[in-house]
Every structure is written in C-alpha cells, then in structure tokens.
Amino acid sequence: MRLLLLVTLAAARRLGDLVNLERYPIGDLRSAEGRALVDKARRDLAATGCASFPCFLAPAALADAVEEATAAAPGAFETDDTHNAYQLSDTDATLLATHVRNQQMRTRVASTACDELDESRAIRALYACDELLGLVKAITGRSVHRLADPLGAASINVFRSGWSHAWHYDESEFTVTLSLVQAAEGGAFEFTEPLRRSADDLAYDTTAAVINGQSEYAVEPESAACPAVRAAPFAPGTLQIFAGRSSLHRVSEVEGERLVAVYCFSDVEGFVNSPEVQRMFWGRAVRPDR
Known about the structure:
The structure is a single chain. The chain is an alpha+beta fold. 28% of the residues lie in helices and 23% in strands. The protein has helices at residues 2-11, 15-18, 32-48, 59-72, 122-127, 130-140, 204-214, 275-282, and strands at 50-53, 77-83, 105-112, 145-146, 154-159, 165-168, 174-181, 185-186, 189-192, 229-232, 239-242, 249-251, 254-255, 258-266. The strands form three sheets. Strands 1, 2, 3, 4, 5, 7, 11 and 14 form an eight-stranded antiparallel beta sheet that branches. It has a four-stranded antiparallel beta sheet with strand order 6-12-9-10, with no helix packed on it. α3 crosses α6.
C-alpha cells in the first residue's frame, strides 16, 4: 500500500530534521518533559477542542514545506460550493428548510491532494512520522490511525482573497493542521469546544446557536445559548490538534493567501473520506489501492 511506502521513505529522515525537538520532545513522551507536554495538550483539547504547538517545525522543514505548498497552490482544485454544518449537500425533507440540517452555507477553498505531494518532502514525511502519530494518540487517548484516503490523508488548503470555509464538522475524528503561509488579513481558524458526543449526535441546538451568532446565516432551532468561540494561533510552523468531528469550526474570510497543511486521523483503521467529500474538495473520488 502507498501509506506503507510513505512510512518507509520517511523513516530515513531524522526526526530532528522535521521537528523542533528542543521545545517538543516527541521522540520520548515517557520523559518528564514529554509527559508535561502531553498533559498540557490533553487539558487544552478537552477544555477548548484544540491543542496548539507554536514553532513545531524545524526551520529547514518549514522552509521546505512552504516551498512545496506555494509551488503547488496555483494548480490546487478549487471548490466554490455549499454544504451544511455536517459537510453534506443533501437536505432532509422531514425538517424545515431553515433547520440547521438543511441550511446550505458557502465555502470557497482550493486544495492540493495527498497524491499530488512528494512523499519524501517535509509535509508528507511529517504525516508519516511515527512520533507524530504517537503524539496524537497520547493526547487524544485514542487508538487513532492515519487515513487510507489517497486524497485527504494529508493535503494543503489554499485560501485566496475573499475565500472562506463555512462552519462545519469534519468526517474524521481528529484533525492536525500545520500553518504554512499566513494571510495578510483575516483567515482566522475559529472553533468551539466539543459539541458532539458521537458521530450520531448532531447537536442541532448548539450548532444552530453558533451559526446564528457567528455568521450571516439564520437557522433553527434557536433555543440554545451560543458556546464560546475561540481563534487558534496561526504563525507559520504552528501545529494544531483539534477534535474536528465534535468541534464546530470555520476559516473566516481571507485577504491575501493562506496555506495550511491538513493531516487527518481516525479511530477506524483504513478510514477513507466519502466520495462526496472527495469530489467536493479534490474534484475526484479515489479509493485506496489494496
């Protein structure tokens, strides 16, 4: 499988070439420093839905990642489409047109798919890094796995002036982002505390409260109080781990260009995004090689 090849190629790359180990000793999470790192990140993730790691990338790895992402950006597949908070474009006829399940919101973003990135360069090498996977497992407390999705396992989101990603939940349980190029203005990654208890819990009340209070859209039901909304730091080289399936999140309107690598993980081994999501963000549906 291609993911196995990805891991094999990355194994030859020293961890210190990718990660700022002086600040983030992810090679030894059993050490006192490693335990302190994990404990703080666990508290942040549980309390807010996101754990942040500024200056996570080593300088040379950041330069390499920015170079590859910038070069790939002009050819990234552009999405200008609508979806509801659950990233679905279909509607439920049993609910009102104004219900949060049916409200379609506009997203405009481009994305470079995983299979368009060089396996030997920093972006995919970090995703293939066992120490990063170990960090995600330790912080989430879950037996998470890299995605088997040839397109969405590790990708780059490209935002240009006037573009944004509307409020939504991810299909994968946990998402890791890696900040590469910061927008001149706007482009804030905004998120809530975890609102959903499971994939089947759609949290209609609190989801509607966020959309009503933090966007131009008006949806029902309107009974719940709006949860706190936070903005994550976005200095280049910052790593974020967040509960994408349970925390509602968006990227606000951008001025300039914003580039961010997106790494997805699932509690289900071999997870692949649905064909609908693949087509929405990469213009094609691809199943993994078996």
